[in-house]
Amino acid sequence: MRSIRTFFLVFLGWFLPGFALAQTAFERWTLESKETITEAYTTSESNTTFGIFCSANQCMFYLHQPTACLPNQRYPALVRNQIQAQAITMKCTLVGNKLFLILEPFNTLLQATQIGEQISFAVSLQSSEFITARFSLSGARQAVTQALQISSQKAVPKLAPPVQPAPPKIPQPVRPNAKDSVT
Q1: What's the predicted TM-score (pTM) here?
Q2: Cα separation, 126 vs 174, whole angstroms
Q3: d(CA 148, CA 10)
């Protein structure tokens, strides 16, 4: 549980003032990378954002939209691209003062972003609202792949140069002292 809390604190840090060390556009997707955080995302015409957020070699897909959800609630949802539709889970998470839907399972979403030209989500929230959102996948494959690669490179600890070991001490044979020898 502690690692999830740490991960979300870092996620919160992403939304605090600061500057991106690198920002790259991949068609309809944007890749941003800061010192310890990497994110690839796209925004729909309705100002809903879908993306992948990585920190400390942990990545998650998210949906950020203007409709409210209840923090810590899980919602069944459907993700669809041109090839297939699959059931997923969305967990409402409060990060700072913003609500995000964290999407699971990760591999299902990763596969869905790699195929086709568009991805859509459908979810029924407890507020009796039904949300649908569509996003372009134009550039998603490159942006998501880069985000995962950058994140894995950041997670590799920087090693100090190897310390040269001291030469081993070779024990010297003990020679009896002339005074101690028996004749």
Answers
A1: 0.73
A2: 85
A3: 17
